[in-house]
Structures are given as C-alpha cells and as structure tokens.
C-alpha cells in the first residue's frame, strides 16, 4: 500500500478552477519529486493534501485513510509536516519559539536539535532573535528545520532551495537524503539538478493535470520529455 | 365634530438611556390631558390628537421632526425636549413656524434666555431654582462654610454660581469650588482638596454636590468619611432610582423638584393614585412635569378666545394654573413657569426601596429670585 | 546609561518616579497617601477591565469595540445578582455576604464566558485579520448589545448593593483608604498573576501570537487555532465581565452607558502599555490611575485632558507604547 | 465601461438628480431636511473615503474637522451677527484652523503604526470635544448655539414676488429663503463631490492607492509617503470643514451633538462601509441609505409593529423604540455579507460577469 | 576608467550586538554588472537596503555621483536614480499589472502631485508603461490584479517596476528565485539588455552559478558582513576561500 495516494483530485479557488483531476501515488520512503512550470499547480497540490484547500471531488488517502475532509491540524497530527512556499515563519516570535511550536510536547529531542544545528549553524547563532529579522535564506532554513525537528511520516516541501547559497543547498540535499531513509519526502522543486540528485520517483504537473509519472532515472534519461514538459534545455548545459 | 387640535410630543425616545425620562414625561402628559379633560380628551369640542416624534437625542434630527410636526402634520403646539442642547436647537423652529413650543422637561436657564423667543414657554424648573432652593434648604448664615463639587461645564458652573450668590447673600462662605470632568468616576482628589479647605474652619461645614448623571459622587465622598472632620454632605433631590443611594445619608437636607408625598393637593392625589393603579409605582419627577405641561395647555386652550397662536400666547402670559406641584405661573417676560420646590430631609425606611426625602417645608416660588432671561414684552 | 535603567526594570519604575514627584509637589503626606492608594486601586480596576481587551487586542489583534458591552453586562449581571440576594447582604452573616459577592462576581464571569463564546462565533470569526471590518462589526455589535441592555434593565440608573464588609474606610492618621479599593487591588493582583503565569508558563501565548501572524501555518503544525481563539476570546470577555462587576461595586449607581464611558480610557491604557503585553497593560493602568489622582489634586483644570496628553506624550516618546511584547 | 461600475454610477447619479429636484419632488418639510443632510453627509463620507478607502488611513478625527468648520461659521455668525462677511470669515477661519490641525497631526503622527494613529486622532477629537464644551462663552458649551443666518436664507425671505408682493410658487413650491438655503447646500456639496472625483481619478489618486497597498514600495519607487499622506489628510480635513460650514448655515444651530460627537464619527464609518470603501460613488449610496434609515426605519417599524400587533413576540421586537437594535443587526449583516459595501459588491459582481 | 556612479565607504550596520554589514568600501561604475554573492545571512540584502534607503547605516557613507545620499529617504534616492527590486516579491497587490507599472513611470516623470488631471488623459504615461509591459512580456495579464499572478509573473512584474523607474543604478535581489526555466530566460535577457546599454550600473544578488557566469563583469563576495573578495568572475570563483565559505561541493564540482 502506498503512503499517500491522490486520486482524481480537483481544486477550485473562488471562481478559478486550478487542479483538474490530479492523481499520483507516493510510496513509503525516499523522495518523490513533483515538477512543473510556474503556475502549474504544484503548490496548490501540496496545500490540498494539507487540507488548506478543500479538494473536490476525489480523495486523498494517507496510509489508506481518507484525509481529504479532515481539519488541517488533524492531518498534521497524523505525522505530515509542511514547509510552505512562503516559508510560513512567525516573524514576531524568536527562532526558538518558532521551533518549540513545531514540537508536539514543547520539548526538544537533544540529538535532533544537534542535527539541526549542524545542518543550519545560523539558527543556533540567532536562536533567541526574532525570526522576522533573519535573512531570506535563513528563514528558509528555519522553515525546513521545523519540519525535521520531530520524526514525521511524510514531509511536504515546497521549493526549499529557493534563495539558498550553493553550499547550503548541498548540505540540505545531504540532510534530505539522510532523512528520507526513515521519512518520506514529497518535494516540489524548480532546481532540477537538486531534484534529480534526490528523487526516486517523479511526477510532472502542467496546467493542473499530471502529465507524466515515473522513476527519476527514466525521466532524467529522456531529454526530449524534459524539454517538452519543463523547457529544461535552455539551461541544461550549465547544470551538467 | 370640530377639527382636532394636534399636539406634538417631541422627545428623545431612543438612542440614550435618558429615553426613560422622555417616557415618564410623555406618560405624565397623557395623564394630564386625561385629568384636565375629565377623560373626554376634548377641549371646546375639539378632540386632541397627539403626535409622537423621536428626537433620537440629536439636535439636527430634532429640528427636522419638529419642523415636520409643525409644517407637515399641522401641530398647533409642540412639547419637548428632554436634553437642553436638543431643545436649544428647537427654539428657532418654533419662531420660524410661529407656533408654540412648550419646553418640558429640559432644564437649562438659557432656554428662556436671550436666544429664546416669544413662542417658547417653559413649564419645567430651571437650574436657578434648583440652586437657590438648595441654598435655602441649608438655612445659611455667617456660621456656614461650604465647599462645592460640580461637573466642569456650563451646567455645573452656572448652577454653582447661582448657589453661591444665594448663599453669600445670607453671609455664608464658599471656601472652594471643585470642578471635575463630566464623566469623572474618581473623586478622591477633589474630595481631598475640599477636606483640606474645610477641615480647620469653625462653624458648620458642608460639602455641596451638584451633579448630573451617574458616577455617584456622594457615595465616593462619603466613603472618605467626612464626618471625622465634622463635615456634612448636601445634595439636591433626584429621581427615585437614584434616591436609593441616599440611604447612606439619613438626615441629610436639600431641595427637590418633586416627590410624590411632598405635595398635598387634588391634582397630585389623582396623579399618585392613577399612576399607582396603572404602573404600580408612584410618579417620578418627569411624570409630574409632563402633567403640568398638559394642564397648562388645556387651560390655555380653554381660556383663549381663539386657537390662533397669538391669542394663546396672550392667554398664557401671566397665567396661573394648578399642577401636581401646586400652582405655577408663567412669568410674562420670559415665559418661565415659576413654581415651588420641596425642602427635604432624608428618612430611611427599610421597607421602601429608596431613601425618602421627607418634606420639611415647601419653598414657595416667591422666596426665590429667579433671574429674568429675556423680555418678550417688547 | 539607558541600558542600566533597562536592566533595572526600565519603564516599570515610572509609577515610583511619579509617586516621588507627586510627594514633593503635594507636600501633605496624608493627602499624598490617600491619593496614591486611590490611584493604585483605580489603576487596578482599570486593569481588570483593560486586561481582557489587551488579551484580545494584543495577542489576537482584534480591536473589539464590543468590549465595553461586556463590561456593562458584567456590571448589570452582578448588580442584579446582588439585588436578588439582598436578603443575604442584610442578614448580618458574613458567610452569606461573602457567598453573595462570590455569586455575583461568578455570575458576571460566567456571563462573560458564554457571551464571549457566542460573540466570537457569530461576530468576530469572519473578520480576523481585517482591522477595519473588526472595528465596524464590533461597533455594530456594540449598538445591539447596548439596546439589549436598555431593553433588559431599562435606562434608569440601577443602585448596586454592596456587602457591608466592603463599606467604609481604613483611617490612617488623616488619610482615608476605602475598603472597597483595597479589595479591588487584591482582585487585580490575583488576575494579573494568573494571566502572567498562563501566558509565560504555557505555550498558549506563543500559539496565539503565531496564530495571528500565520494561522494556516499553526494549523499545519497540528494546532486548532479556531478553538484556541474562542478560548482566548471567552477569557477576555470573562475578564471584562469581572471588571464590570468590580466597577459596578465601585460606582454603586450604574447606567447602561458605563461601559462606553470607560472604553476610551481602557483603550488608552492598552495602547500606552504597549500591545500584546499584560505587564504593559498593568503599567499603563497604574500610571493612568495615579496621574488622574495627582493631577486632579494639583491642577484640577488639567485633569480633563490629562489622559489624552499622557497618551500623546508617551506615543511620541515610545511609538510602540511603554512595554510592548518583544517583536 | 464595466457593467457593475456603470450600475453604481447610474444609481449615484439618480440620487444626485433626486437631490437636485428634491424641493419639487418632495414637498414636505422633513424631506427637505433629509435631502440637505444627505447632501452634506455625501461630502463628509466621500472625504473620509479619500482617507480610509483610498489611502488606508484610519482616523477618528473626521468629525473634529467637520465640527471646526461648523463652529467657525457658527461662532462668527453668533458673535458678529448675521451677514455674508461673518459667513466668509467663519468659513475661512474654520478652514485655516482645520488645515493647521491636520498638518500638525499628520506630520507628527502619520509615521506611527496605523492603529496608533487611529488612537491619536481619537484623543485629539476628544480634546476638541472637551474644549467645545468647556469654552462655553464662545461655543455655547454642551448646549451649542443658535444664531441668525444671512437674510437670503431666512424662510421669510421672498426670492421672487408677484404683483401682489406674495411669494411666487413654482409647481407649488414657494420661492423663499429656505429654497435658497437648500440649493446653496446642494451646490456646495455637488462641487466638493465633483472635486473629489477628480482627485481620485488623477495621478494623485493612484499614488494614494499605491500607498494603501504597499507603503514601503511606494516610497521605494520615489513617492514621499509622509508628504502624500499628510496632503490627503489635509485635503480630506478641509473638505470636511467646508461640509461643516455648509451644515452650520443650513441648521442655524451648532452644537457638539450635531457636529462633534463620536456618534457622528460612527455614522460616517457606517456610511463608508455600507456604501463601499474606495469607490467614491459608494459614498453617495452609503450616506443616502443610512440617513434614510435614521429617519425612516423607525416609521417603518411602527407600521410593521402595527401590522403584526396580533402576533406574539414580534410586535415587542418591532417596537419602534428598538429601531437602533435593528439598525445594528442590519449593519452587522452588511459587514458580514457585503464586506465591499453596496457599491463594491455591485461592481465586483457586475464586472466579473461582464469580464467572464 | 570612468568615475564611479555609486560608492560606499566604511558602510556598517549593527542590529543590537550583531554586525550585519561591516566596513564595506566599494565603488560601482556605469556599464558594469557586478554580482554580489555570499552565504545566506552574509548581509547582501542588508547592503542593498542601505543603498536604497530601507535601512540607515550605523556608520559609513553612500555616494551617488558624488552626492551624499546616506541619510536620504528612499523616495529621495529614487529621485536620484537609484532603483531596486526586492528579494521577496513586493508589489501593489490589488492594483492591476498595468497600474503597477504606470505608478513607477509616473513617479519617474514627477506627475504624482497632479490632482486634477484624469489619469486616462496622460496618454504619454500609459504609452510608456505599455513599453515596459511588452519588454517583460506581461501584455497578456496587463489587467489582472498583481496578487493573482503566478509566482513567475510576479517576479517579472517586480523587474518591470524597476525598469519603469528608469534609474541609473539597477539593483536586483535574486530576480529569478523560484522562477521556472521557461520564465527565467526572459528576465536574464532583460538584465543583459540593460547591461548592453553601457551607461547603467547594475548590481545583482544571485545564488545560481550559471546565471552568475553568464552575466557578471565582476563579482564581489560578502561573508559575515565583510567584503571578502572583489574581482573578475573567473578569479573570484576560483579562489579557495570562496569555495570554502560559499560554493561547497557545487563549487568543487564546477
Ligand atoms: N488564492 C488564489 N486565487 C486565485 N488563483 C490562485 C490562487 N492561488 C493560486 N492561484 C493560481 O493557481 C495556479 C496554480 O498556482 P500554484 O501556486 O499551485 O502554482 P505552482 O505550480 O506552485 O507555481 P510556482 O512554481 O510559481 O510556485 C496559478 O495560475 C495561480 O495564479
Ligand atoms: N532588522 C534586522 N534586525 C536584526 N538582524 C537583522 C535585521 N536584518 C537583517 N539582519 C541580520 O543581518 C544578517 C544579514 O541579512 P541579509 O538579509 O542581508 O542576508 P543576505 O545576505 O541577503 O542573505 P540571503 O541570501 O539569505 O538573502 C542576517 O544574519 C540577519 O539575521
Ligand atoms: Mg508554488
Ligand atoms: Mg537576501
């Protein structure tokens, strides 16, 4: 049984119809990458899984249970963490307070905290500073750190590398690889090189529809497909 | 069947907690009509038709509804309003339409002052009466030292000025005048100043409180125990619900506009009995005032040679008529109704919800020297 | 220099500074004592009424003009309860008197809880994060609530009976200290401590502030923001009710306008205290209480505008209020 | 033009047309009072919309400026006697004081957080209210003051007379001073409203919207935000003061309750919201709707209470004394269901349909 | 070499105890595109903020064509030809795309105080705004509210606003962050176009190495608020210290 199974999910926002019957399955373990151009519907898909948009009709099943009607907080309590596109930092709270809210008990697991510190030293440095004063990249780090401070079953991550320096991107890639051994990651990325290095499975979304699913290896091998779906060729050479 | 005579009652009946006063006044007015017409509701064969207008306690709305009453509805006489500001705004409308406005229950002296006009009559008491009667109730002499506490606006200052004049005419001294913001709730500072000003004075020491609205300054001053300096309190009478707070000052003396047990006459007897019957409570201030206005109007209509406004004005100038407060007389110059007040002493009876302002004596209109606001005669 | 002051408690010394200056200016120790105690207790009573607003305004960023209606309701509910139990108050038994008082305050609090719940569900919920609509819709609610009060209790002033053990004053030398004021100080301090512990020893304060900033994210972290908000709102309204009840006991003659009359002062206190901090609100309330009394004694002419001037001065000095929550 | 916008403009223009012909269409005294009040409040509300709807400034001092304008004329007329000189002098005085106050408040405090600014204006407004009631020698205190207006506006003045010297009637309407006063108010209101329309449609208007939307970025692309805010605050204040002057002339009475009280501030807020913020035309609709409600909801309820007298409970609820209760409820429902106000909602719906 | 159009000397800012930018002295010349790189939190955005006026420095000066603008308000700097696009999209959300751009054009032309002319009458303004609309390929969405645009289009509008200001100094803060590969080339082309003008000074913060390589005339590196390196791209990217603090493995692999 797959961990997350999305069947024929549609989302309307106000008068606009954004997703038209999205379906894909995320297997337990590893990194599942969702790719697509700007405005394709990636963020909307993640938000719908999280219950922040109400999908209709269709279903979202997590470990076999239909979670599509549940309240966001109940979905979160089933072990799903969310790193939103806009980072969702509480700017008025300190870094520490941001982190505390991401734990269920209000206490940190020492080893996990240590892990976060090594991954993102900046957070340690600014631990008692208001999160609103962090730099763009530091906010991004805090957002990811909140998702990994507790053990989760599934992490939904929306463009984590946006605005991060190359060294940090590398470190984050390492971290994801490590985390994905125990936790499934559903990753939305524009940085194809980053996605490719992590992904096991891939889905491509365009104009609110899934236009391709398969393994990362197969997708990476098919340059034509990439070009057609993502206009990747433009900068492909540079990434090589 | 003669044409009806239309009378507009122009009071604030919504938008403020003072609306209850308007209701009392209108109830009193209707009872007054009933009494004066012996239940027929007709004068000289004309049925009386009442028109009710709500000023919403807004002067601009009030002007519009009064103009409407005179202009569109054809009211011959209007009665109102409740607050002085609203009523002040009504005065020019009466002049514009050349119809009579009977002021009741608004209090301010200025309503018969120089901004007023010959179409305005006033049956309600004015602040000068309150203050002078209050001064007389203290039986002032050289041995009396008074500190005053009032709200800091025209009503408070004018009232204290009138009170002071009356006191000082008899040789008593006002040692300090304290004014606090209109919506003040804490009187500690003012009280402390009054204590300091009074405590070392020889003779009788009194704090006079002149206050409109809530806040219960008397209770607050009392809580600071003026008695330890030999200081008494004095304050004017009030409506029944407020009299409940007077239970803490048995024996206190002052003056009150109306208390149902204070007057002994046929009109009042009827009013108290009917009011008890219908509302199972005694009439209050504004009920009596409303009734007085109705009685004045009916008498004027009966005695006037015609229903022309000018004839009515001539009839009413100098007219004397019976009210629950005894006789009243419209002073020809400014159309203020001169009237008596009650000098009371507080008695506490646990069976009664409020403290009883027991009559000491009636202060007759002739004892007070109410300034003439304007002269309508020239 | 300023760092030293800040470490030593900073602005929280302001009331002491005020009191010292006043002592010199007043010159009469007994008057000073009377005024200071009166000011303190006035401050704590204002704090009781302001704390609910501060909680809702500071933490949830909801500007609730309807707050004054809860204060009025609290006053009338407790006054009616006391009136209904007036037999107990005159029975001469201290137990019965305390019980009557407890029931009256309890009734006001219970009413606040219930009304707060309904108010949040019906009125405030649709307008979170929209100040303007909050101002408007709560003003609409205020009109309705005022009318309901008028319809229920009529417009006549209502006398509030007081248990006899709260009457009178303690006389020290030439100064007198009302017993009721001491009682108000006690209640104010207890409420302050309770709030302080709740907000600083639990994650509640954090969650609320985070929820205001980004509600979706708090939910995505697994918390029910809607339930939390309704709880806070109920608490705020209950505090308003309690404040109103205490105020009624102080006023002894109350009218339905009571809430509206203190609304402005309550707003001033919350603002000069600084948003989002209960400490700030307490500080603001005490400063306002003391200022009122000192100015009223020293320069009665100024007392009319003293609060406004105080607020403007403080805002010009510290645009975010005296002790805002760390942002 | 879009359909929704068109509907709103048409509705507003119909209201203006009704106001133009009001003395002839509605020959009752009260209706003229209502019409004049609507005209004045349209200006007041539109100028407030300039602040709150277009620039995003929440101020509680708008009635203060309205009041200063009104008191200017009132004090001049009261202390100098009736005449055009005092009217002009009073208006000019009111405008100057208003402008000074607005510049001072604006420069001092438009930099602080929006909600603090709102509170400062609230404080300033209450100080002025207290002053008005304190300086009773000049202002008439709590009770306000009545005064005489220039001859032309006196009801007894005959604008046109026939051979017999009686007032000419045109379609049954007396050509008297009251009519002159009404048209005076009307023309002033119409001109001010038109001027504000021009402002919101001008480059300045778009800058105001930009400040409302994103102050920092507006500053960043080159607009001095504080200067613009202060400017619009002054423009709105002066307009309100002019409306106040006209109202003082019309009412022949000025007092705290008519031009300064917080109640009027709430009325203005209600009108802006009911009409629709940031639409300017909405001010016309909002002011009309609320003034009509204030004057007629009560009557309507009287009828309704009468009609339902037989039923249980209903008449009690419909008791005309409780009309404010209903106004409050209607208001809540409006804010709830029409957050964009009447005009805003019509524009949204209509334009969307047209666009789709 | 030409005169510097923009120069900072000793620019420093401290937040409490933390020094975000420390004693940065650097000149920028017309016709030159300088890329600023550095780890997250190095102070790049803060450096920009002090040049465009969102933050005032604790010490140091900023000169534009020799004029001291260190303490000017942002609006005054804009008048002096300093233009800035933001890292986090910063638009007028409820105005249409065209209105957004027209506001910038109007600020530049100084028409903002005109209060009695109808906007529609100023056809010249609209025409200019439309030119930038075309340049950024946003014609199709000209009348949509900015808030409803997809992320990529919002980033483009951010750039369009900067272009419409027609500044002398262009400052871009990660203009292509989060942009998919079908959009990014448009923006890079625009920047290349400005650079080609030769009279403009361009400052660009960017983390994508491919972009840096494609555009940079010069690279400066900030680290912990300090100026760590300054020079031609090849030289700077090759230096060991830059590889250590910034590039990590990616640098090693390149
Ligand atoms: N709140 C909203 N209201 C209206 N339209 C919306 C809203 N949110 C998103 N959209 C539209 O839905 C479409 C899909 O948006 P979504 O954010 O899911 O795209 P995305 O794939 O995440 O794009 P990007 O790579 O730019 O983040 C876009 O056209 C966007 O304009
Ligand atoms: N207002 C502020 N208060 C306190 N610290 C601040 C403030 N603004 C920035 N900082 C700190 O200054 C440092 C530099 O931040 P800046 O935003 O300039 O980084 P950056 O180089 O742009 O990073 P990124 O690449 O992540 O955007 C950061 O450590 C940040 O936490
Ligand atoms: Mg997205
Ligand atoms: Mg940055």
TrEMBL record, chain A:
Keywords: Amino-acid transport, ATP-binding, Nucleotide-binding, Transport. Residues 4-232 form the ABC transporter domain. GO terms for molecular function: ATP binding; ATP hydrolysis activity; branched-chain amino acid transmembrane transporter activity. Coiled coil: none annotated. InterPro entries: AAA+_ATPase, ABC_transporter-like_ATP-bd, ABC_transporter-like_CS, BCAA_Transport_ATP-bd_LivF, P-loop_NTPase. SUPFAM superfamilies: P-loop containing nucleoside triphosphate hydrolases. One of its GO terms (biological process) is L-amino acid transport. Belongs to the ABC transporter superfamily. This is ABC transporter ATP-binding protein. It comes from Seohaeicola zhoushanensis.
UniProtKB/TrEMBL annotation, chain C:
The keyword Glycosyltransferase does not apply. This is Branched-chain amino acid ABC transporter permease. Its main location: membrane. It holds the Pfam family BPD_transp_2. One of its GO terms (molecular function) is transmembrane transporter activity. PANTHER family: ABC TRANSPORTER ATP-BINDING PROTEIN, BRANCHED-CHAIN AMINO ACID TRANSPORT SYSTEM PERMEASE PROTEIN LIVH. Keywords: Amino-acid transport, Cell membrane, Membrane, Transmembrane, Transmembrane helix, Transport. Belongs to the binding-protein-dependent transport system permease family. LivHM subfamily. It is a multi-pass membrane protein. The chain crosses the membrane at residues 12-32, 38-57, 69-89, 101-123, 135-159, 179-199, 228-250, 262-291, 298-317.
UniProtKB/TrEMBL annotation, chain D:
It is a multi-pass membrane protein. Keywords: Cell membrane, Membrane, Transmembrane, Transmembrane helix. The chain crosses the membrane at residues 6-26, 38-57, 87-108, 114-132, 179-197, 226-250, 262-293, 323-347. One of its GO terms (molecular function) is branched-chain amino acid transmembrane transporter activity. GO terms for cellular component: plasma membrane. Its main location: membrane. It is found in: Cell membrane. The keyword Calcium does not apply. This is Branched-chain amino acid ABC transporter permease.
UniProtKB/TrEMBL annotation, chain E:
Residues 6-249 form the ABC transporter domain. It holds the Pfam family BCA_ABC_TP_C. One of its GO terms (molecular function) is ATP hydrolysis activity. PROSITE patterns: ABC_TRANSPORTER_2. The keyword Transport applies. GO terms for cellular component: plasma membrane. Transmembrane segments: none annotated. It comes from Seohaeicola zhoushanensis. Keywords: ATP-binding, Nucleotide-binding, Transport. This is ABC transporter ATP-binding protein. InterPro entries: AAA+_ATPase (IPR003593), ABC_AA/LPS_Transport (IPR051120), ABC_transporter-like_ATP-bd (IPR003439), BCA_ABC_TP_C (IPR032823), P-loop_NTPase (IPR027417). The keyword Transport applies.
């Amino acid at each position: 049984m797959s961990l997350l199974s999305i069947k024929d999910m549609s989302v309307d926002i106000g008068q606009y119809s954004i997703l038209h019957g999205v379906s894909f399955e995320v297997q337990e373990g590893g990194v599942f990458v969702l790719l697509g151009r700007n405005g394709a519907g990636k963020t909307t898909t993640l938000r719908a899984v999280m219950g922040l948009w109400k999908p209709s009709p269709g279903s979202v099943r997590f470990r076999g249970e239909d979670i599509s009607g549940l309240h966001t907080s109940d979905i979160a309590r089933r072990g799903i963490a969310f790193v939103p596109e806009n980072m969702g930092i509480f700017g008025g709270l300190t870094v520490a307070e941001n982190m505390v809210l991401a734990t269920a008990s209000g206490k940190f697991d020492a080893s996990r905290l240590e892990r976060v510190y090594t991954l993102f030293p900046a957070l340690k440095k600014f631990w008692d500073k208001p999160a609103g004063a962090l730099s763009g990249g530091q906010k991004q780090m805090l957002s990811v750190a909140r998702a990994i401070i507790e053990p989760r079953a599934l992490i939904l991550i929306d463009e984590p590398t946006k605005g991060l320096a190359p060294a940090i991107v590398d470190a984050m890639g390492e971290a994801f690889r490590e985390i994905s051994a125990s936790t499934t990651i559903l990753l939305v990325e524009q940085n194809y090189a980053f996605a490719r290095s992590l992904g096991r499975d891939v889905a491509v979304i365009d104009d609110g529809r899934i236009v391709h699913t398969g393994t990362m290896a197969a997708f990476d091998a098919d340059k034509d497909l990439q070009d057609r779906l993502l206009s990747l060729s433009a900068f492909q050479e540079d990434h090589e | 069947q003669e044409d009806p005579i239309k009378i507009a009652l122009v009071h604030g009946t919504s938008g403020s907690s003072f609306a209850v006063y308007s209701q009392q006044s209108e109830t009193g007015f209707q009872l007054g009509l009933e009494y004066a017409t012996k239940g027929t509701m007709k004068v000289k064969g004309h049925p009386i038709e009442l028109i009710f207008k709500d000023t919403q306690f807004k002067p601009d709305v009030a002007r519009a509804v009064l103009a409407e009453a005179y202009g569109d509805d054809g009211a011959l006489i209007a009665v109102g309003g409740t607050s002085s500001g609203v009523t002040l705004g009504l005065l020019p409308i009466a002049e514009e339409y050349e119809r009579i406005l009977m002021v009741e229950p608004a209090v301010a002296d200025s309503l018969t002052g120089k901004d007023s006009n010959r179409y305005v009559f006033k049956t309600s008491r004015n602040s000068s009466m309150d203050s002078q009667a209050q001064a007389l109730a203290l039986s002032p002499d050289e041995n009396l030292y008074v500190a005053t506490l009032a709200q800091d606006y025209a009503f408070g200052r004018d009232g204290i000025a009138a009170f002071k004049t009356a006191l000082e005419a008899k040789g008593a001294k006002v040692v300090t005048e304290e004014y606090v913001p209109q919506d003040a709730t804490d009187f500690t500072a003012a009280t402390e100043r009054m204590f300091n000003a009074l405590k070392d004075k020889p003779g009788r020491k009194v704090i006079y409180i002149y206050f409109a609205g809530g806040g219960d300054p008397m209770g607050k001053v009392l809580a600071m125990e003026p008695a330890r300096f030999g200081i008494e309190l004095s304050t004017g009478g009030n409506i029944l619900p407020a009299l409940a707070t007077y239970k803490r000052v048995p024996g206190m003396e002052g003056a009150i506009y109306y208390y149902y047990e204070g007057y002994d006459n046929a009109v009042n007897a009827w009013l108290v009995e009917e009011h008890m019957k219908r509302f199972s409570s005694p009439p209050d201030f504004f009920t009596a005032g409303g009734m007085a206005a109705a009685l004045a109007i009916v008498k004027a209509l009966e005695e006037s040679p015609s229903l022309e406004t000018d004839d009515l004005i001539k009839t009413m100038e100098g007219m004397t008529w019976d009210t629950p407060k005894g006789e009243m007389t419209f002073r020809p110059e400014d159309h203020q109704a001169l009237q008596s007040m009650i000098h009371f002493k507080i008695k506490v009876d646990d069976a009664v919800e409020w403290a009883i302002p027991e009559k000491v004596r009636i202060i007759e209109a002739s004892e007070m020297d109410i300034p003439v606001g304007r002269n309508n005669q020239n | 220099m300023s760092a030293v002051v800040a470490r030593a408690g900073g602005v929280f010394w302001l009331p002491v500074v005020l009191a010292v200056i006043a002592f010199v200016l007043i010159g009469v120790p007994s008057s000073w004592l009377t005024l200071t105690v009166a000011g303190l207790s006035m401050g704590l009573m204002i704090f009781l009424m302001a704390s609910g607003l501060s909680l809702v305004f500071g933490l949830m960023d909801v500007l609730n003009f309807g707050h004054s209606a809860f204060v009025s309701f609290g006053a009338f509910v407790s006054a009616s309860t006391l009136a209904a139990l007036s037999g107990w108050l005159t029975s001469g038994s201290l137990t019965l008197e305390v019980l009557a008082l407890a029931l009256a305050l309890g009734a006001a609090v219970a009413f606040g809880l219930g009304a707060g719940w309904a108010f949040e569900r019906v009125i405030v919920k649709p307008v979170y994060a929209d100040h303007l609509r909050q101002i408007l819709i709560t003003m609409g609610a205020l009109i309705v609530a005022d009318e309901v009060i008028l319809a229920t209790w009529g417009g006549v002033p209502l006398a509030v009976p007081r248990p006899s053990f709260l009457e009178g004053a303690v006389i020290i030398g030439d100064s007198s200290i009302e017993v009721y004021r001491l009682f108000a100080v006690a209640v104010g301090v207890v409420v302050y401590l309770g709030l302080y512990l709740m907000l600083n020893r639990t994650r509640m304060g954090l969650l609320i502030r985070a929820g205001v900033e980004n509600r979706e994210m708090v939910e995505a972290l697994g918390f029910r923001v809607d339930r939390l908000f309704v709880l806070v709102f109920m608490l705020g309204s209950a505090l308003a009710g309690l404040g109103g009840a205490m105020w009624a006991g102080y006023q002894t003659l109350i009218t339905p306008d009571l809430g509206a009359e203190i609304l402005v002062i309550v707003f001033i206190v919350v603002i000069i205290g600084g948003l989002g901090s209960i400490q700030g609100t307490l500080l603001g309330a005490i400063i306002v209480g003391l200022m009122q009394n000192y100015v009223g004694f020293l320069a009665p002419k100024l007392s009319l505008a003293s609060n406004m001037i105080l607020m403007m001065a403080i805002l010009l000095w510290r645009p975010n209020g005296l002790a805002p929550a760390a942002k | 033009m879009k359909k929704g916008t068109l509907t709103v403009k048409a509705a507003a223009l119909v209201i203006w047309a009704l106001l133009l012909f009001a003395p002839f269409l509605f020959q009752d005294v009260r209706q003229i009072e209502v019409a004049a009040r609507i005209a004045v409040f349209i200006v007041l509300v539109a100028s407030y919309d300039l602040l709150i709807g277009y620039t995003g400034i929440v101020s509680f001092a708008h009635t203060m400026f309205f009041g200063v304008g009104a008191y200017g004329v009132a004090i001049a007329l009261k202390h100098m006697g009736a005449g055009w000189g005092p009217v002009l002098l009073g208006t000019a005085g009111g405008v100057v004081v208003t402008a000074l106050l607005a510049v001072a408040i604006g420069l001092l405090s438009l930099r602080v957080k929006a909600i603090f600014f709102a509170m400062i204006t609230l404080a300033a407004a209450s100080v002025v209210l207290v002053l008005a009631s304190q300086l009773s020698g000049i202002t008439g205190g709590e009770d306000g003051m009545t005064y005489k207006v220039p001859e032309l506006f006196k009801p007894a003045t005959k604008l046109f007379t026939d051979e017999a010297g009686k007032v000419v009637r045109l379609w049954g309407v007396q050509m008297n001073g009251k009519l002159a006063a009404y048209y005076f108010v009307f023309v002033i209101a119409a001109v001010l409203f038109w001027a504000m329309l021009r402002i919101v449609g001008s480059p300045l208007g778009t800058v105001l919207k930009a400040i409302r939307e994103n102050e920092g970025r507006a500053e960043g692309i080159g607009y001095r935000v504080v200067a613009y805010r202060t400017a619009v605050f002054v423009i709105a204040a002066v307009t309100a003061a002019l409306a106040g002057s006209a109202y003082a002339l019309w009412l022949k009475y000025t007092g705290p309750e008519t031009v300064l009280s917080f109640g009027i501030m709430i009325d203005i807020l209600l009108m802006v919201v009911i009409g629709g913020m940031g639409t300017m035309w909405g001010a016309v609709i909002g002011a009309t709707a609320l003034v009509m409600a204030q004057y007629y909801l009560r009557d309507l309820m009287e009828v309704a209470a009468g009609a339902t007298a037989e039923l249980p409970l209903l008449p009690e609820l419909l008791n005309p004394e409780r009309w404010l209760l209903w106004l409050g409820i209607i208001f809540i429902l409006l804010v709830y269901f029409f957050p964009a106000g009447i005009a805003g909602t019509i524009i949204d719906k209509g334009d969307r349909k047209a666009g789709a | 070499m030409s005169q510097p159009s923009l120069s900072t000397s000793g620019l420093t800012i401290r937040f409490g105890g933390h020094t975000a930018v420390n004693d940065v002295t650097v000149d920028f010349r017309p016709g030159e595109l300088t890329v600023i790189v550095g780890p997250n939190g190095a102070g790049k955005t803060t450096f920009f903020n002090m040049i465009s006026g969102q933050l005032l420095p604790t010490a140091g000066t900023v000169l534009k064509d020799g004029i001291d603008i260190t303490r000017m308000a942002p609006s005054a700097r804009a008048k002096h030809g300093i233009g800035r696009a933001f890292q986090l999209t910063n638009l007028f959300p409820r105005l249409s795309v065209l209105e957004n751009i027209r506001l910038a054009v109007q600020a530049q032309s100084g028409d903002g105080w005109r209060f009695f002319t109808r906007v529609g009458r100023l056809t010249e303004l609209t025409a200019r705004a439309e030119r930038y609309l075309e340049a950024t390929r946003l014609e199709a969405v000209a009348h949509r509210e900015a808030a409803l645009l997809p992320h990529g289009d919002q980033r483009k509008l951010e750039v369009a606003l900067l272009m419409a200001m027609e500044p002398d100094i262009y400052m871009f803060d990660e203009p292509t962050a989060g942009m998919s590969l079908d959009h990014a080339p448009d923006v890079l082309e625009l920047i290349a176009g400005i650079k080609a003008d030769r009279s403009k000074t361009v400052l660009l913060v960017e983390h994508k190495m491919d972009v840096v390589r494609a555009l940079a005339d010069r690279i400066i590196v900030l680290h912990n608020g300090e100026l760590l390196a300054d020079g031609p791209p090849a030289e700077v990217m090759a230096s060991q210290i830059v590889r250590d603090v910034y590039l990590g493995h990616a640098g090693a692999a390149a």
